[in-house]
Amino acid sequence: MKIYYVRHGQSMNNVINDLTDQEYENLRQLDPQISEQGIKQVKLLTDYLKSRKIEFEEIRCSPQQRAIQTAQLINEVYKVPVKIQQNLHEKGGNQLQNKGIPGLTRKEFQNKYPEFEIDEIIQDAGWYFQDKRETDEECRQRAEKVIQDLHNEKKKSILIIGHGNFMDMVMGTVCGRAQNSKYFYYHQNCGITLLKNDGYGFEIDFYNDYSFLEMHYLKTGEDLILKRLANYKGKI
């Protein structure tokens, strides 16, 4: 089977990544939409998938808005079943200032996205079940469960729309990364990783492919590079 794992398009929180940690936390949205640039990224991604004749039976996405919106845009072209899957959410969960927020309820999801299948675990209490931030260990265990479930998957090809930090945990699980390792599996917005399972285990066919994104759509595009050069003070 094939699992195409894609990070969502640039979100409104991603736009402010260059701020200090405190500034970022003060401005960070709980559940942001994708930005105008993110919409362009997703459209480029969709064109690229079609140009490579990549097909899939189903799209599965995180319950967070940036992943859902990415799935919606892709499915305007693909028109396959889409499932909102609770355990694909970003590392840390749905939280602000380390306080857990339940998020949309099942009925709210159904009203907002009537064309999507909603994970059975999402009911009246929302989709995030803790009153605090998810820990790294809890996230690692969740990633292991996602991979184990995919081992037993019957479909031959699935597109998963997820998040950068959780995708790092998934890759760490697949690759057997040591728990205290400092290595991080980075994914660009809309970067694609293909995992294949021959029945014995997953192998990485390709990782974080974002070759289809034009330079001015990248977060590290020419305008940002020139800005940093202008502010360069001789420090390395």
TrEMBL record:
Q: Which InterPro entries match?
A: His_Pase_superF_clade-1, PGM_Phosphatase
Binding residue positions for substrate: R7, H8, G9, Q10, S11, M12, N13, N14, R66
Transmembrane segment boundaries: none
Q: Which GO terms describe its cellular component?
A: cytosol
Q: What is this protein called?
A: Phosphoglycerate mutase
Q: Coiled-coil ranges per the record?
A: none
Q: Which domain of life is it from?
A: Eukaryota
GO: which molecular function terms? phosphatase activity
Active site, renumbered: H8 (tele-phosphohistidine intermediate), E90 (proton donor/acceptor)
